[in-house]
Amino acid sequence: MVVHLGARLYASLMTDSAAPDAIVEEQFAGEGTGVELETTDDDASPAREIEPWDPEKIRVSTKSFSLRNVLDMIDADDLELAPDFQRNRVWKARQKSRLIESLLLQIPLPAFYFAEDADGLLRVVDGLQRLSTIHGFVRGQEFALDDLEYLEKDGSKFSDLEPALQRRLHNAQIVVHVIDPSTPEEVKYDIFKRINTGGEPLNAMEVRHCMSRTRSRDFLKRCAASEAFQTATGGVLKDHVRMQDREAALRFCAFRMLGDISNYDEYGSLERLLDWAVRQIDDNAALSDSQLAALFEDFELAMNNATLVFGGHAFRKWPTTSERYSPINRALFESWAVVLADYDERSLTPIASAIVRKAREVMTSDPNYIASISSSTSDARRVEMRFMVPRRLVSRLAS
To answer: What are the residue boundaries of the GmrSD restriction endonucleases N-terminal domain, all occurrences included (predicted)?
Structure first.
């Protein structure tokens, strides 16, 4: 049974004795995302050690820019809008038009946040949707104004506006808080989480995407776009509106690079581990091109093996009491993918049906395993449990 419930009720359902059919699908804008809602309890984790910020290292300066200047920086790649960030597309035509109308009416916009790197390049931290909309209207001619409240300019593109109104847009001043490159990376993440204000709050993966570098973004995009991944996940994560496709790939990479699952304790939470994994991928010195290529091969092998063994039920809860297709479960994804990457097709084919039978049994009758893939999934004991079970299961059948 798949139900659509709030996170609080989901947490009350998913206890150590939770029924295996109590599955809750994550929602966005009133629609299911194809991914099971997950509670990690990262902030409540007793293993997490809070490290105080050093105020001397936190530098945020306030500057004023004209929109013409900002648009020029975007065109010159001096200001990065985090390409292929899906949430840009959530804004409706009316929202976009009303933003442009506010500028034409000379109504000040809320402040923006940019992060500066060591090379002087800027990345948008807060205000991505607003700047994407303005750039699309002024430079890309991507949409015409519609459903305006005060100005009679419905149907007008930028080129249709009088020169005076075009100048008004170009000369509009915006206030920008710029995070200095000397600010520690983990502090930048925390600042982002505190100040992102645009509409629906960003999730951790969306924050990570906006703050990461091109190397990791391109790599995770490649993983998520691979045919093997799309087949294994039934296509439900394709161009995912909440970037769960990229997060799934990152979770595989993080635990694959981690190696011994006991090393997880060093990070204290799943989010810290994923942040570390992004930094590793972004750093050529930490992960060479050849190592990154090998990681992609492992990822594709895991996806192909998951399809071989589980078919359409790969990475989904599949108790013996139901044949329904459940939403993708991220805890199942990371653990089973990492385990399956250790085997080739020839060794798995003869034991595939036995793996399915045993996996369904533990998803049905083992309360500790069910808990490990259902709630408080960042807890070190539950992480260890969900990796240990499939590793032992497959190893015994393959021996």
So the answer is: 81-209
Residue 32 bridge partners (DSSP): 27
Q: Answer positive or negative: Cα dihedral of 218, 185, 284, 286.
A: negative
Reported as a single tens digit per residue, the pLDDT across 315-374 is: 999 999 999 999 999 999 999 999 999 999 999 999 999 999 999 999 999 999 999 999
Show the domain range for 87: 59-182
**271 with 42: CB under 8 angstroms?**
yes
Domain identity same for 256 and 381: yes
Tell me the C-alpha distance between 257 and 119, whole Å: 29
Residue 122 parent element (H or E): strand 122-126
DSSP 158-216: GGGS-HHHHHHHHH-EEEEEEE-TTS-HHHHHHHHHHH--SSSPP-HHHHHHHHS-HHH
In a domain, 338, yes or no: yes
What's the one-letter identity of residue 111?
A
**Number of alpha helices (DSSP H) and beta strands (DSSP E) in the chain:** 17, 8
> Do 293 and 390 fall within a single domain?
yes
| Contact indicator for 248, 256 with CB cutoff of 8 Å | no
User: Is residue 193 in a domain?
Assistant: no
pLDDT digits (tens, 9 = 90+) for 138-197: 998 889 999 999 999 999 999 999 999 999 999 999 999 998 888 876 677 777 766 655
Residues 29 and 67 placed together within one structural domain of the fold: no
Compute the 3-state secondary structure of the chain and give helix, strand, coil in percent, each to the nearest 5: 55, 10, 35
Return the amino acid letter for 98.
R
